[in-house]
Write a structure and sequence with these properties.
The protein has 7 helices and no strands. By secondary structure, it is mostly helical. It has one domain: Phosphatidic acid phosphatase type 2/haloperoxidase (Vanadium-containing Chloroperoxidase, domain 1, Up-down Bundle). The radius of gyration is 17 Å and the shape is globular.
Length: 179
């Protein structure tokens, strides 16, 4: 079992370096540094609050469910970050520059979790938006590795936590009776 974890860790580090070091270009530098903020606390919370307080009745329940999924998934993220304690890649590898270093742990990616929580929730409620929303959430996750904040496994697990939390809230917390 220890060999399996070593192999996964080595593959994760290898893939991180390929994405972070070899995919560099000015266009991606600009795009990724903007896209990454779509998974941040301000943007994701704003989207939920906007939908909840809008006068569009069909958006309130998805907005509340998304806020619940977002909150629950971020609790899971914080617990896992403290339990796993994985250092961020820019603290391990040389030649990785980050604009605003973070000082918490790396696993899992909170931005990716938030992006997938919202994208999955809205995709379940509005299936015609599935492809663009999940693509956007994937790009947020990719940006986290591209910018040096997370390993690919951090991003993958963020997607699992966010998507799984949204799925659970959507199917087991019907809130249509509220509005």
């Amino acid at each position: 079992m220890k060999n399996l974890f070593s192999l996964i860790s080595a593959g994760d580090a290898w893939l991180f370096q390929r994405i972070n070091q070899r995919c560099r270009c000015a266009l991606l530098d600009a795009a990724m540094s903007k896209l990454t903020h779509l998974g941040g606390a301000f943007c994701t919370t704003f989207i939920c609050i906007f939908l909840i307080t809008s006068n569009i009745k069909n958006l309130r329940v998805p907005g509340v469910q998304a806020l619940i999924a977002l909150s629950a998934s971020q609790i899971v993220v914080q617990v896992l970050k403290r339990k796993v304690g994985r250092q961020r890649p820019y603290l391990i590898f040389r030649n990785i520059q980050v604009r605003k270093p973070l000082f918490d742990c790396s696993f899992p990616s909170g931005h990716t979790t938030a992006g997938y929580a919202l994208a999955t929730m809205f995709a379940l409620d509005f299936p015609f938006l599935s492809f663009p929303l999940l693509t956007l959430a994937t790009l947020v996750g990719f940006s986290r590795t591209y910018l040096g904040f997370h390993y690919p496994l951090d991003v993958f697990m963020g997607a699992v936590v966010g998507g799984g939390t949204a799925f659970t809230v959507h199917h087991y917390m019907p809130l249509s009776f509220l509005f």
